[in-house]
Structures are given as structure tokens and as C-alpha cells.
Amino acid sequence: MRDYVRPMTHQRVRTVSEQIENRDIRGTATIARETAQAIEVAADDAEAETPAEFRETIRVAARTLHEARPDDDSLSNALRYLFKRMDGETVATLQESVTSAARRFQENIDRARETLGQIGARRLQDGDTVMVHSHSADALATIEHALEAGKEIDAIVKETRPRKQGHIAAQQLQEWGVPTTLIVDSAARRYLDETDQVVVGADSIAADGSVVNRIGTSDLAVIARERGVPVTVAAQTVRLHPDSLTGHSAGIENRPEREVLDDATRKQIGEVSVENPAFDVTPARYVDAIVTERGQYPPESVVTLMRELYGGSARDPWLEE
């Protein structure tokens, strides 16, 4: 038997890693899918002679991908899913476990939004008025499938300043023929009196069921609870964040000041300090249900789903030496 040689990173893995790092590959589902596919290719081409060498080959590939964007939940979740299912006593059985899991993960990603939309649509009743915050393809999928089921839905869309992602959502809803009212963010409380459901997406969901999403989500959820309007969070399972025990432990990005104040306005106002957080945290107690492609869950139960899919929150195996 040849002497052990530390495996080189597969060319496909290096290419995908560079594309993710350079943001040539974007979007939660796309990043997760490309990560799984790169590991599948690396496993299929592995020249390991022993199970230990094969495991090290996959560990090196995973570490290379993870380093491209260490804070990306979808990338890490793709790796966790595969490592949880890597099993076997021989190189051949290990190889088969990884490649089959990778193919299964990619298939799940490809149909996740449609399945999620079908599940979420069951929460919407014919004649409902739905309030939407920001733009979330997962949240809009629930409305799309409600429409396909023959339900009549009206929408109230918050602008979601400062970047006005609500305009994107309003345009999509208009294209589907949904009667849509666009409101400024500060009018949410007023229009909740005319709302039957609030449906939002999620950037990340912590183990305690708290939700990190576009800034303003938390305010809306608190007011909706006061008004007795149920809040549904629609998010694919790649959005789950097993490493965060609470949403408050997730990093919150601060966006550029120029999104809030342009140069002319700043000159007029003076040297005022500007804070522009991109996201906020909605505690689980303000969320009625989290809808995923695996079903709908009370927020406090989502940790069970995380463990089933991705394992516990122990140190990720590709980081181990």
C-alpha cells in the first residue's frame, strides 16, 4: 500500500469555492445546491485506498468550500447534511453514501420552494388579505399556490425602507393579478385592522425558533400579535441555523449609510450619525408557524427538524484536524 498522502482539493471544489467567494454564485438555494454537487463530484472522483483517506478527502473539500463564506447558513447546512449521512466500512460504501446523499439533497433543493408553497397555501383562506414585508420568494410562493388553488387573495405590501424591497413583491403580486395596496412601513398598524394573515420570509432561523429577517419584521410581528393577526414565516430548511441558539447570537449586517442619506441630504442635515441594520430578530413567541418544505412547525419545535436534517450544534466535522 502506498504511503499516505494528504489529499489535494478537487478542481471542481476549488472552482465552486472561488465562485461562491466572488459572489458569482448567489442565492441561498443555489449556493447550497452547488456545494452539494461539488462534494458529490469530489466523492465520485476520490482515489482513496482506505476509509480514513476517503473521509479526509471529503473533509478537505468541505473545508475549502466552507472557507469561501464561513457565515453562510445554506453552505454549512449542505455540508452538515452530507456529513451526517456519510457512513460505511469501505471506500465504496462511503463513496455511495456521500454521492447518494448529495443527489438527494439537490433534488430536495430543486423542489423545495414548490412544496413549501403548497404547504403554506393551506394556511390562507379564500378571501384573505395578506400583509407582506420585504420581498421573499418563499413567502410569495404561499400566495402563488393559494391562487392556483382557486383562492382569492388581496395583498398589503410594506415598502420596506430604505431599499424598498416591497416594491419588488408588489410588482410580482400585480403580475399574478392580486389586488395590491402598497403602504409606507409606519402605516402597518393602521392596515393590520384590514389584514387576515402576515406572511414573511426568513434570512435565518435559530434553534429557539426566533427569526432573523429584513429589518422591520420584528416590529410588524409584535404589532400583529397585539392585533390578533397570525404571523407565518415561510423559509426553506437551508435557512435553519443550528449554530445559533437564539437569533440574537446571529450577526446582523449594517448596510451603507448612503442608503439612508444621500450626499445632498447629509449636507443639508449636518454630520448626523446614521445606523442602517439590514435585519432584526423576531422572538419565537411572536410567530405562529414556520412553514418549510418539510411541513409547518410551531417555532419552539423547529430545533427537532434541525437535528433531524443537520445533526446537533457540535463543532462541524470538516473543521476538525
From TrEMBL:
User: Lineage, please?
Assistant: Archaea, Methanobacteriati, Methanobacteriota, Stenosarchaea group, Halobacteria
The family annotation for this protein states: Belongs to the eIF-2B alpha/beta/delta subunits family. R15P isomerase subfamily.
Task: Extract the NCBIfam families matched here.
Answer: eIF-2B_rel (TIGR00524), ribulose_e2b2 (TIGR00511)
Q: Which organism is it from?
A: Halorhabdus tiamatea SARL4B
Annotated GO molecular function terms are: ribose 1,5-bisphosphate isomerase activity; S-methyl-5-thioribose-1-phosphate isomerase activity
Pfam families named among the record's database cross-references:
IF-2B (PF01008)
* Example of a GO biological process term: L-methionine salvage from methylthioadenosine
UniProt entry keywords in alphabetical sequence: Carbohydrate metabolism, Isomerase
InterPro entries on file: IF-2B-related, IF_2B-like_C, Initiation_fac_2B_a/b/d, M1Pi_N, NagB/RpiA_transferase-like, R15Pi
This chain belongs to which protein, by name? Answer: Ribose-1,5-bisphosphate isomerase
Source taxon at top rank: Archaea
